[in-house]
Amino acid sequence: MISVVILGAGNVATHLFKVFNKVEHVSIIQWYNRSINAMKAYKNDVDIIDDLAQLKEADLYILAVSDDAIKSLSSQLPFENRLVVHTSGAAGLYDIDKKHKRGVFYPLQTFSKTAEIDFANVPICIEALESPDYHILKNLAISIGSPTKKVNTDQRNVLHLAAVFVNNFTNQLYRVAHEITESEGAEFDLLKPLILETAKKVQDLSPYMAQTGPAKRNDTKTLKKHLKLLQDPHHKDIYNLLTSSIQRTHGRKKL
Question: Under a CB-based contact definition with an 8 Å cutoff, are residues 205 and 215 in contact?
Answer without folding.
Answer: no
